[in-house]
Amino acid sequence: MQVNIHPSWENVLSAEFEKPYFDKLIHFVKTEYAQTRCYPKGNHIFAAFDRCPFDNVKVVIIGQDPYHGANQANGLCFSVNDGIAFPPSLLNIFKEIETDLGIPFPKSGNLERWADQGVLLLNATLTVRESMAGSHQNQGWETFTDAVIQKVSDEKKDVVFLLWGGFAKKKGAKIDRNRHFVLETGHPSPLSANRGLWFGNKHFSKANAFLQQKGKPPINW
């Protein structure tokens, strides 16, 4: 199965691309994109991997589903295209960064700038139908992204995993915590944040402190 993904990930995940579930998954995705409007654009489905090669991964943030509104999703979890209003979760992420690090709100919610510094912005499901949250779940994406997390855990060392909310925590259950730095908190969505489960987590300063301790450059959040 030939998948258009960054060569560094091709090497790491090649066995996954040969498995029957992945063949079925790609067939499902191609059919969906041919028959209905789906996000992100086809050439952005693997954007998280293309913007952040395997060798560069320093931080992993796990999301659930791409945004399902027009022009929002760009293949990176929590990120939106330039010029798009910040969705509520992203707004709360920027509020926490401002409080934690004193960094003012950015002009754009496009997080490619994080990916370029080694932040893997991984959604559990990489595609979605327009206006139908969760519509591409349980088709094989979760198996694939579990394999991605496992590979990062097994083959790299001293990666920071930021697990926000119950879904991400469950997804990150198999991360080797002796090899990596795992931080957990509530989800940045208003539902969770307004219940006091998000603000004040200081994940951004903690992640940078760990990276610097390991001799790696911090992330410019």
Automatic annotation (TrEMBL):
Entry keyword annotation includes DNA damage: yes
Ranges for domain Uracil-DNA glycosylase-like: 50-211
Enzyme class, broadest EC rank: hydrolase
Domain of life, per lineage: Bacteria
PROSITE patterns reported in the protein's UniProt record: U_DNA_GLYCOSYLASE
Major place of residence: cytoplasm
InterPro entries, A to Z: UDG_fam1 (IPR002043), Ura-DNA_Glyclase_AS (IPR018085), Uracil-DNA_glycosylase-like (IPR005122), Uracil-DNA_glycosylase-like_sf (IPR036895)
One term under GO cellular component: cytoplasm
Family: Belongs to the uracil-DNA glycosylase (UDG) superfamily. UNG family.
Protein name: Uracil-DNA glycosylase
Source organism per UniProt: Flavobacterium supellecticarium
